[in-house]
Amino acid sequence: MNDGAREIExxxxxxxxxxxxxxxxxxxxxxxAPVHQDDQAYAQAGWExxxxxxxxxxxxxxxxxxxxxxxxxxxxxxxMACLEHETEVADRDEMHRAILAMGCYPTVxxxxxxxxxxxxxxxxxxxxxxxxxxFLEVEKVVGPGESGxxxxxxxxxxxxxxxxxxxRTTDTYDSLVRATLV
Length: 182
Fold this sequence. Notes:
Hypothetical Protein Pfu-838710-001, globular
């Protein structure tokens, strides 16, 4: 992602994945083949669930198709409007130890099956998240001058235009998974 660019997203609990797929197809969007993602989430020392995530950096280690990705997200406007940095790493275990040495601690493991599609500048993800359910994420990368909440309203209008029964959530996957495990 370019310097200063932010990832803005909206997330919805999906009640009927088949109906959603049909609605996407009517809009000319076909989902990719499923991929398995195994994510370990990390938080900065001193941060705990229940505290605001805004302004706090969070790390993630993801393994997908034998590749390991390190991601740092820092929520700015809200939990779904983040400054994001991501890079591939050669050794997941070594990166895990490095993250711990930087003062972060592991929070929850998020395992999911993801299917994706794109529509112009929008990225769509249909995720089946273990312990949490099925979700639709719609994301857009924007420049530093754009309002996260305004972009989220635009993304919400797009999702609502699909005409499917979904429930918007402002929780991130780590919070959703954790809520089912505690």
